[in-house]
Amino acid sequence: MAAEPVWSVDPRTGKPREQVAVEATAGEVDRAVRAAHAARDALADRTVRAAFLRTAADLLDEARAHVIEAADAETALGPVRLTGELARTTAQLRSFAEVVTEGSYLDVRIDLPDPGATPPRSDMRRWKIPLGVVAVYAASNFPLAFSVPGGDTASALAAGCPVVIKAHPDHPATAELCAALLRRAAAKEGLPEDVVVLVHGFDAGVELVRHPLVAAAGFTGSVRGGRALFDAAAARPVPIPFHGELGSLNPVVITPAAVEERAEDLGTGLAGSVTLGAGQFCTKPGFVLAPRGEAGDRFLAALTAGVSETEPGVMLDHRMRDAFVAGVAERAALDGVRTPVTPGAGGEHTVSAGVLAVDAERLIGSGGGEGAGDAGGAGDGAGGGHRLLLEECFGPVTVVARYSSRAEVTAALGLLPGNLTATLHIAERDQDGDAASLLAELTPLAGRVLVNGWPTGVAVAAAQHHGGPYPATTSTSTSVGATAIERWLRPVTYQSTPEHLLPPELRDGNPLGVPRR
Fold it and tell me: Is 505 a known active-site residue?
């Protein structure tokens, strides 16, 4: 059977641009993984690893115009957005170089021998080592920062793990370009190019997670696709860690005092967050609890005006566009759902942003919720088909649920599954006790909780956490920030080991100056 071609497609027209590759066969995936596995020892030197990450960032910056042009042609995200994304991507690579150089990620712990302890203690020295080859699944909505040169790749390489990356079909030419730059950076620092390998194709992605030499996987995408890969990773004869980011509703709660204080600002701010990047951010606020009443009406009017002023946008591909159009139509048809701005098709290749509004009591139903994180997911206690409003709809739309009481807020939050973010908007005159109790209700729902802000935009920082309870992610780890490196490491303790056999980081005198306990 002939290999299936991989085409670069223009999302603005739906027409193929060029063939950039062919889908990898099972044999080619096997060779890719084995090549990466053979290169793993070359990444052992932390100094070389850090230099490699910095050189990769430099080469991406030097090829900026070409990279942005390629990514825009395949995603329609625009040069401004992609320029910022590339800057974030290269900053992330350099940040991980600093993490590697500083060394605290190794979490070195030394217990000196104590024969008088009960029981007696031997000399024990603990640190963390790389897992091995990491499979990285590129994301559709971030062709740079969450794809070939993105956070999963950068953190895995920083940990000392070679990567085999499954390109996303929405931007295969961008993937090829970025992979070539990473491989060139490896060669410039004396590393085998196969510390980074790229494959294409759906079947290749399945073969990759099943390969016995793949030690872990990182994924950003849909609940359906991510869960299938997660289950495959768990079903292997030797299961492996699967760090998947799958989907998130990112709820927002606005207190009555907050909406009275700044209704118009809240509506305008929410409109900007919902429509940013055609609503294709994983942290888009998709569900908002806002109070009934005159101030709540002003908030909704400002949100309506802001969304109405948004021009129709191009989504990443026509499959996503069609799913958005069908999804918002199904939600809008539910009993009691109003459409202050009707979302849907903006043209043959575009979508129009919108707002759906509903009374919170319709979501709550008579049964109420069973609390965050239930195995049943969103809306087990919601009435009828309204549970659909509590599921992510990828694209520029949000659901505003109008509540009449504090009890309705609690009941609605009890229906929600896990999220990447949860946001609380309060006013200065909100009673501290009530604000604290709302924050306490939101905290179990998400990995990042914001007060008086909007969740779109994820800073690359040491304290960042980009993850959350299932289905937001399949693990408790973050995919953004310095601690993302921890996903690709495991601890090992050496006991009563002669000095000359220990890694330099664990030897007496700390010759490499690594932070230690």
Answer: no
